[in-house]
Structure to design on (266 residues):
């Protein structure tokens, strides 16, 4: 069976790459795109894609659904819109595959309930790159032995959310086994606000934004006289595409929300 896919955010850095990935996959058909601006009737009209990319663009998800009936809705947009998109897709019985970051814990909990009640699969993946998933899993394991941890995430300067979804997910995974405790000197004082980074159960998260970067993260785990550094680099957005393909195929078989690709890779 061919999987019918719709993409939101097709004009963006990730979206453009995902459009080509789905178009080139023989097991999938890109049936529509969702935008919030009137940018043309089809992807070809935007001049960002070849003339034969006659995939229709909609600005309304219900209309997109009634005219193109996608099985899967891929979202690569922005933190402002992604919760609404995911909720609306589930309500229309379209399976969401979400790469957009910036969900609150409350939003994730609500979507988990909705997905379960509707028995509609949903995958929310803060990072689609296999190497990044491994970095997070190794960090979770290493934290059992070295629980003093600082995360440094480094991204391009067009990124809207901080800290990154990957850094938050890493901290969340680690926190499941790490006893909450403050790090650094008990009497430390920030001379410049923010110098010690964000505080997640005592772990510190530092967000670097610079032109030239794509997506990079280091997890530093300190112990007496030693430091373990786990690092992952995405040098281009092709690094995320195999995770998107895996998620589109896997979400077809699920009936609940899965948060993180670590739950679906063997
Ligand atoms: N999970 C993962 O592995 C990865 C996740 N990401 C995440 O994916 C998201 C997109 O990243 P990236 O491609 O770099 O960002 P871009 O800003 O390049 O792309 C986002 C696109 O979405 C469009 N857009 C905004 N709002 C809507 C909407 N309501 N409906 C449809 N389209 C909309 C934007 O249009 P306009 O600019 O005109 O507003 C833009 O073209 C981010 O949240 C990022 O963190 C990124 C890389 C990997
Ligand atoms: O905005 C990005 O670029 C990325 N966002 C995701 C995140 O917030 O972790 C995934 C990856 O790091 C790239």
């Amino acid at each position: 069976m061919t999987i019918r896919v719709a993409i939101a955010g097709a004009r963006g850095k990730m979206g453009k790459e995902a459009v080509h990935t789905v178009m080139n996959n023989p097991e999938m058909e890109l049936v529509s795109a969702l935008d919030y601006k009137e940018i043309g009737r089809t992807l070809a009209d935007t001049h960002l894609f070849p003339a034969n990319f006659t995939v229709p663009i909609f600005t309304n998800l219900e209309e997109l659904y009634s005219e193109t009936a996608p099985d899967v809705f891929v979202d690569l947009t922005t933190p402002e819109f992604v919760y609404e998109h995911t909720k609306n897709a589930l309500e229309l019985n379209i399976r969401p595959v979400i790469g957009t970051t910036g969900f609150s814990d409350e939003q994730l909990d609500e979507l988990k309930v909705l997905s379960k009640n509707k028995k509609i699969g949903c995958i929310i993946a803060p990072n689609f790159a296999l190497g990044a998933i491994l970095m997070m899993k190794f960090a979770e394991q290493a934290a059992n032995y070295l629980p003093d941890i600082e995360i440094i995430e480094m991204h391009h300067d067009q990124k809207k959310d901080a800290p990154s979804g990957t850094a938050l997910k890493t901290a969340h995974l680690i926190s499941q086994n790490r006893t909450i405790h403050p790090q650094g000197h008990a009497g430390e004082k920030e001379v410049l606000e923010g110098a010690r980074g964000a505080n997640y159960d005592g772990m510190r998260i530092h967000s670097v934004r610079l032109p030239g970067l794509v997506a990079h993260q280091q997890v530093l785990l300190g112990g007496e006289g030693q430091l373990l550094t786990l690092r992952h680099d995405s040098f281009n957005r092709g690094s995320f595409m195999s995770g998107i393909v895996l998620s589109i195929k896997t979400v077809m078989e699920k009936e609940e929300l899965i948060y993180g690709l670590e739950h679906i890779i063997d």
